[in-house]
Amino acid sequence: xxxxxxxxxxxxxxxxxxxxxxxxxxxxxxxxxxxxxxxxxxxxxxxxxxxxxxxxxxxxxxxxxxxxxxxxxxxxxxxxxxxxxxxxxxxxxxxxxxxxxxxxxxxxxxxxxxxxxxxxxxxxxxxxxxxxxxxxxxxxxxxxxxxxxxxxxxxxxxxxxxxxxxxxxxxxxxxxxxxxxxxxxxxxxxxxxxxxxxxxxxxxxxxxxxxxxxx
Length: 215
Ligand code: BG6
Ligand code: MG
Hints:
Elements: E1 5-8, H1 18-31, H2 38-41, H3 49-59, H4 67-85, H5 97-106, E2 110-113, H6 120-126, E3 135-136, H7 150-158, E4 166-170, H8 173-181, E5 185-189, E6 197-199, H9 207-214
Parallel strand pairs: 1-2, 1-4, 2-3, 4-5, 5-6
Helix pairs in contact: 1-4
This protein binds 6-O-phosphono-beta-D-glucopyranose and magnesium ion.
Magnesium ion binds near residues 9, 13, 46, 171 and 175.
């Protein structure tokens, strides 16, 4: 298979922003009387804002909030999260990612972002990566969040590459399922189930290891 595009998740693959999502959700969860820990947080990775809050409420058996109240807390969480993001600098890009981007650019392979985060353009700008990226799939333009395949198919479409010529990288279980359902070669970072290629850290990723796994 010839690789023509690599589709990247953002939070937890390009930068360690997953910890900021956790800090912000933990604060909001506490405000509504729910305790969450790192283990529960795994269920929020790759999941959009609305569903993340629903999972937190279900975890605490909270059924009393109106839609307006939910929107208030989701907005508050996003404001807290954006406050934490202000500290991001290019030094926060995860190991190996800039080298991988440069290798892909040198090999004429497109780089497309398949994140469900509405903050992706802001984060990529803070990390000084926007000029290396060919496309960012707009999560508002897709119907279903991960684990549905939609955002990965949109990211492939945006760079004009068939899914069969893409590989995609994820750090969340919902993301691996989304990639697999899109019938794209899946690369997992961390302790994940079901990835076609699994690495412990982004520092291990390069074109050679990906090409070898494809054979
Ligand atoms: C995903 C994160 O990338 O984006 C989730 O893994 C997060 O934790 C989701 O909920 C939505 O992000 P945002 O920034 O639009 O709230
Ligand atoms: Mg992620």
